[in-house]
Each structure stands twice: as C-alpha cells, then as structure tokens.
Specification:
- The chain has 11 helices and no strands.
- It is mostly helical and about 200 residues long.
- It has a domain of about 100 residues.
- Helix 2 packs across helix 4.
Length: about 200
C-alpha cells in the first residue's frame, strides 16, 4: 500500500518527519517535495535535527541530504553546525546522511577545510554505513582537489583490512579512484547535481 502523505506546510513538517521508524524513510520524500516547492519551509526541517525524537532527527537529515542535492544554497553559513551534528548524534542514520551532505557541499572550495576533518573522523565511526558514506564523500573531495588525495589515501589505507567486506571493498575502489586522474568515480556515488557538474561527465562512470 502506498504511503499517504500527511498535511504539508509548516504545521505538518514535524508530523511528517515523525512518521515511520529508523528502519525506513518515513515521509522524508514528501518533506523534500514540500521544501523544494516552498523554500520557506526549510528552516523547520533544518531545526528538526535538534529534536529529542530519534525518528524525527533521522528523517530530517535524510530530507536535508536529498534537498542539498539540488539546493545546497539553503545550507549556506551552516557548515560548522552540520559538522558538529554529523560527529555527535548517537543515531547512525543521522551520521551517515550527514556524511553524504558533506560530500554534496564539497563542490565549494571554501568548504574543504571543515569538511575534510569531519569526514576523516566519520571514517573511524563504528557503523559500517557511516564509514561507507564517509569513504564516498572523501573520494569526492579527493577527486575534486588533487592536493587532498595524499592525506585521504593515508587514512583509507588503515581500513584496507576492515572486518566489513563492504567497507574494505569500498576502500579499495576509493584508493583506485584517487590514485590516478584517469580512474573514474562511480556515478552512483555522486548524487549532487552540483558535484556532478564540478567533476565533469568524463570523471564519472
């Protein structure tokens, strides 16, 4: 049965974000559609990761990640707070979506110095999903900025023997991507329209 969206608008944002559980996206996609149609709603979505309700926080960050693919400008001036949330929230779903958001914001060179240390810390996260998305976003950062590659590769090398096959496999792929300009980054790793444009089609598989 298809999910029935709850009422949109400021009065309905938190109700939509509280739908479902930590095992699903709830009504995050409906929230994304509402914000893209009316940007004034974004403030309430952005404030939701400060809520005490775990499901609201997780679904809010899921929505923020999807919004940022198309409207990264809505996060202007908020990078420091995003990094703090990505490192401190106890819910893995929040941290891995924040790792994705940081990758989306890497297309702006002035963001590099805050994004890099946050992603390197997320690379040490106990969650396989958080690690995996940190690897993806670090790959994006390194592919965009050659001078970042040495440090990123050094940190990735420490995870070549990760007990998770998914993580160790992704580390090997990321190492290949960053070791040569001719190596293309998987297109599925790059979900931001702005990052795709910055990388150029020839850089993507």
């Amino acid at each position: 049965m298809a999910k029935k969206a709850k009422k949109s608008g400021k009065s309905g944002i938190l109700r939509n974000l509280s739908a479902g559980s930590l095992q699903d996206d709830g009504l995050a996609d409906e929230v994304v559609e509402a914000v893209l149609s009316d940007n004034t709603l974004f403030g309430e979505v952005y404030d939701a990761p400060l809520e005490s309700n775990d499901v609201v926080r997780a679904h809010a960050v899921d929505a923020i990640e999807k919004i940022t693919r198309l409207r990264p400008d809505l996060l202007a001036g908020r990078l420091s707070e995003l990094c703090r949330i990505s490192l401190n929230d106890e819910i893995p779903m929040v941290r891995w979506h924040m790792a994705m958001v940081l990758g989306h914001l890497a297309y702006r060179e002035e963001n590099r110095d805050e994004i890099r240390p946050a992603l390197l810390r997320l690379l040490e996260d106990p969650s396989v999903f958080v690690k995996s998305w940190a690897i993806v976003s670090l790959s994006i950062l390194g592919k965009l900025y050659r001078e970042e590659r040495g440090e990123i590769l050094e940190h990735l090398s420490r995870h070549q023997g990760d007990p998770s096959v998914a993580v160790s496999s992704k580390v090997r792929k990321a190492a290949r991507v960053l070791s040569a300009d001719s190596e293309k980054i998987p297109g599925g790793w790059v979900k931001s329209a702005f990052v795709r444009r910055a990388l150029g089609r020839s850089t993507l598989t």
